[in-house]
Amino acid sequence: MTVADLKKGQKAIITDSSARDIPLKLLEMGCLPGNEVSLLHIAPFSDPMYLTMNDTHLAIRKQTAALIEVELED
Amino acid sequence: MIQEILVGVTVLAAVGYLVKKFFFKKNSSNSCGSGSCGCG
Amino acid sequence: MGKQINVALVGNPNTGKTSVFNQLTGLTQKIGNYPGITVEKKEGVTKISRILTAHILDLPGTYSLNASSLDENIVIELLLNKNHKDYPDVVVVVSDIENLKRNLLLFTQIKDLGIPTILAINMADRMERKGIELDIPQMEEQLKTKIALVSARKKTGFDELKKHIKNYSLLPTTPCCNVSSIDKSYFDKLQQTYPEQERYKLWLLITHDANFGELDRKTIASRNGLPQKTKDEIKKLQHKEVVARYQFINGMLKACFKQDLNLAKGMRAQLDKVLTHPVWGYLVFFVILLLIFQAIYDWSTIPMDWIDEGFAYLGQWVKLNLPAGMFTNLLAEGVVPGIGGIVIFIPQIAMLFLFISILEETGYMSRVVFLMDKSMRKFGLSGKSVIPLVSGTACAIPAVMAARNIENWKERLITILVVPFTTCSARLPVYLIIISLVIPDEHLLGIISYQALALMAMYIIGFGAAIAAAWIANKSLRVGTRSSFVIEMPDYKLPIFKNVGLTVVDKTKAFVVGAGKIILSISIILWVLASFGPSDTFGNARKNVQAEMASTDPMPQGVDMEQRIASYKLKHSYMGIMGRGIEPAVTPLGYDWKIGIALISSFAAREVFVGTLATIYSVGSDNQITIKERLAGEKNTATGKPLFTLASGISLLLFYAFAMQCMSTLAIVKRETNSWKWPLLQLFLMTGFAYLTALIAYQLLNL
């Protein structure tokens, strides 16, 4: 599953963020395996997504979110 | 006479300023070369 | 006069770096540009001790030293070039308490460059509220630096920061995080080739296309024995570098950073619930926009009236009290109305910058980006285009530059192309004066003024045109590009008065001084053109008018006679001759030759329009009246009816809304797109469209 599949309020752990099209800037903001990500809000028409990742609050588009592999936290 | 000279000087200054501003603007080259640094 | 050292402030965006800078430098700061490029350069001076002053440079905000934009390149170009005149003796990395982890990434990178580096943790006043505790001595030991906890808002911690700056030479310059482990053999080879350089510095040289002075990528690449890296390999290594740094940072923070989340309080969640809501979010945005227009139109008219009357009086005073002659006339009829034409708009421009700077300071702008992204994408724009489009309401030049934040080239290009449609503050003077002439000064339901509504309509037309043009450009441009979009959503903050105040003062001053010089020069030239003419007509004005009138009116005399002579003179001055030359082109739009002249001079800068009309109409007139009264009384020289009617007014408004009349914007677009193609496209398409709509509007309304 990927970040794009998260529902509002869900938390997950990043398992893989090595896809080529993930911008370096996102990695630098903490999009790295082992870090927690949670979905705070979704903009109208379900895109972009407002996340917290590594304690940073940020928004990315769904197509980028779909590249980040995650596992749900229990 | 002084008034005419002052007018002449002012007008020359105005023309000079505009010419300098719009026609001799230094086009210093972009220090950023090729690649992805803000120029596409 | 003691010693002066160079201090560079570096930090992530949204950390309050500029507030720290403002706190350190106050009114000594200067804002300029880096030579050759249009990145804002902020510098100032602060006193560190009795014998030591510091020259402080506020570098553009960046998340890391892996630069991907022009602004970020500035940071590495300075930090890697020891021969640069601003090369820092000490770097202060400004971080904020809540995003410490992410901010430390940049810190560890800079620390690896071998420059003395101090960590300033800003917003320390929020620690308690967020339940955060820090073990500063241990952090200092692990990061091999000195740390100052500061609060730009509460103005605390600056003595400590200055103390650390004073003792900068005692700071260790060794790296705190060893990243060469990401590819040990490669980094060892680099080190062997250049034993005197820091490894990380060499690595940055290899991965960037910037200008570092002493060494560059090609020189390094040409050295024998160094293995070459492909783009993909470099990206993988950069990925590894980030992971390695975070490992170090996480390890350290585990020991030094404690947060009791039960204590953490904040408005973020509640505010976001409303401000990013699919319905309330848009509603709030709309209400904020309405408030801004109400403020600009209604509230700032009071000081504007004073200024208008003041200048009318000043012109009169000059005429009465200085020795009569040509230069006095130039002052009273050219210079004073010319300056008045710009000074009058200071209240509104300041108000506009005030609102824009508050929206950015509070963190609200990012929410708008978030809300608008999906809908903007339909038009080939990005949510981030909102910032250029909104700051375009101040001036298209910074707006075109603000488009640099857009990662995707096609979205960025389209944003640059359509930004000049937004209603910039230079259009404001024109709109205001025309609206006040042709729209009744009444209130809808007794509250909302029709004139404010008209002004808002003009802004909506501007945005609408921008969006429509973007849609067309999106359909017709073939530019292949990958899409990526990352935006930080900073925490909400109350704006710091000092930051807002300094922004308003600086921007207003730049606007008034920059445009003021052009307007003044053009006013002077126009006055000359309007005051002289060929001797056979202009020189014999009295005789010709008398001869002309003798045939129709047997007893011409008094005031009427003088006025006829003045208008005859104007008509036969050099300017009148030029104006009547272009009259056939502007008559179908409902203008006379005087407006034609004003239109042409507007291509230097739009705000010249009002000054031009003021100058044209004041030549030869003796009465003390304001610009507005003058224009209201003006008759169309061709038809004899009032010049400013609803039809001609709307036609003029539309012309100014769409025409590309700003040489400075064209120059900046050329620079940002690296081609003449795009600015020329803007010039011809926009102006052609403006002419067409103005023509249609006038012809329809005049039926």
Task: Give a quick rundown of the structure.
The complex is a heterotrimer of chains A (74), B (40) and C (703). Helices cover 55% and strands 0% of the residues of chain B.
Map the helices and strands.
The complex is a heterotrimer of chains A (about 70), B (about 40) and C (about 700).
Chain A: E1 11-16, H1 24-28, E2 36-42, E3 49-53, E4 56-60, H2 62-65, E5 69-72
Chain B: H1 2-23
Chain C: E1 3-11, H1 17-25, E2 30-33, E3 40-47, E4 52-58, H2 70-80, E5 90-96, H3 100-111, E6 117-122, E7 132-134, H4 136-143, E8 147-149, H5 158-166, H6 184-193, H7 199-207, H8 217-222, H9 231-256, E9 257-259, H10 268-275, H11 280-299, H12 301-321, H13 326-343, H14 346-362, H15 364-377, H16 386-391, H17 396-402, H18 409-418, H19 427-438, E10 443-444, E11 448-449, H20 450-476, E12 486-488, H21 497-531, H22 535-539, H23 541-552, H24 558-572, H25 574-586, H26 593-601, H27 608-618, H28 627-632, H29 646-658, H30 663-673, H31 677-701
Parallel strand pairs in C: 1-4, 1-5, 5-6, 6-8
Antiparallel strand pairs in C: 2-3, 3-4, 7-9, 10-11
Distance, first to last CA of chain A: 15 Å
Mean pLDDT of chain A: 90
Largest interface: A-C, 30 and 39 residues
Give the spatial strand order of the biggest sheet of chain A: 4-3-2-1-5
N-end to C-end Cα span of chain C: 75 Å
- Counting DSSP H or I runs of 4 or more residues, the number of helices of chain A is 2
Helix fraction of chain A?
10-25%
Fraction of helical residues of chain C: 55-70%
Provide the CATH architecture of chain A. Roll
